[in-house]
# Entry
Amino acid sequence: MSATFALISRKVYTSFRPLRVVQGLVVHRGKVVYSGSGGEAVDKARRLGGDVLELPDWTVIPGLVDSHTHVDSLGLALNSVDLRGVGSIEELKTAVREWSAGRPGWVFGRGWDQERFREGRFPTRWDVDEAVGDRPVILIRVCGHMALLNTAAAEELGVEELAKERLVRNEAGEFTGLVVEEGVEAVMRQFWHRVDEETLRRYLLDAVSHAVRYGVTTLGLAGASIRVASSLAELSLSGRLPAKVMVYLNLDAFRRFSELDLRAPMFFGKRVGIVGVKLFADGSLGARTAYLTEPYEDAPETRGLKLLGREDVAGIASRAERLGYQVAVHAIGDAALDEVIEGLRGFRGRARVEHLSVVRDDQLVKLGELGVAGVVQPHFVLSDWWVLKRVGARRAGWVYRFKDLSEFIQISLSTDSPVEPIDPWENLYAALTRGESEGIELAKYTADQKLSMVDALHYYTSGSAHALGLESEIGRLEPGYDADFVILAQDPLELEAEDVRRVRVVEVYVGGERVYP
Ligand SMILES: [Zn+2]
# Structure
């Protein structure tokens, strides 16, 4: 396909709010230059020396924008042994042995759960040694809070020094290969140092190509090291990246950049930009580290963990504002959100709040006054099926209240992949149904928080573009916007909510260039 072409289809949605459907688009030098009637589009493309692409039976929508992902971790996850559902230690050994054959270097896996093991015990480093000898192996438990290392990995990482307090020992005092909590983080940091440049680039490319297959044309990367950011920049500059990635630096990387007075946004070629900094105000509901104003229902001794106070947020935000960085803050509990709201008062840059899992009524108003973007993950509703155990029925109305939030602030739908699947159609299903068919308890209390298909698509395109600060470049197919679009075999607006997971992506274009298949 040349740089100029007309796209003619039964239905081209140029935007979902306002809802506008046309039959013709003209793409020229990566941008949409016309949207309207099919006949006019053909004439215009011919005048510009272009071709005509006819798709009579298909539906075209703007490319989907997943504003909160972890591209590096997704790439690693795609290159790992999947141990979910493994039923015994013997089976785990076989899976690791088979996966590692023919793949050199470190072996990484995730998803094991000893509760499922026939042996009725935790696996040890000696089990893994039997399977793979002296190849270094790291296997993360399903929850992410525990890791199993074999002897070679433990020695190479110097784990007994690295994770001292967080090692699991047997009765004889020997290290079993298991590390927990901060020990897992320390192991992962060391692991990433050992991933060479070429492998890192492959992980990043694998992750972005994987997202593209589902119709995602722009990704937000929520928390990147300098190394990950520069690898992405290189991939963009060498023209190898199939979609756009907007990077929010982690706090360490942001500190380094701001010491050097490096300003944002900073673009590298057409597809990568460094646009902001990502902070954490608290932990997660799963681990009971999300910071709540009242104690956990199932652990009355705790309210979770405050990772940043209002002064910390304000301090970082003012530096970000001076240098042009957006500020994205993870806030899951309502007490964490109080700190973020107070910390952002007076901030005149662009801010977004990530997750917003537990939000009180008074906070909706304050969020609206601040004018922040709200970046939410509908699929959490399905994964956190236990959430009412944590907060109790009394606070059920505060949990994942997407509809309420959308009435006060601009919201964006995202997946936090690899925490949730990157597949936007699964995520839309969760936004539309809230797990009613799966018997999710929260659905009973919050049925009024279901989104409609048209609204959900608006938040997945234009809403997410807004969260990334790209609302005048992507998310719509009107003249002046980037020609990022997805060709679908079905019209999602004609489907029942239950069927949206069956949508088939036929082709994907970024900047007028076909990137899938
Ligand atoms: Zn995240």
Notes: Residues 490 and 503 are 6 Å apart (CA to CA). The pocket of zinc ion is lined by residues 68, 70, 222, 416 (CB under 6 Å).
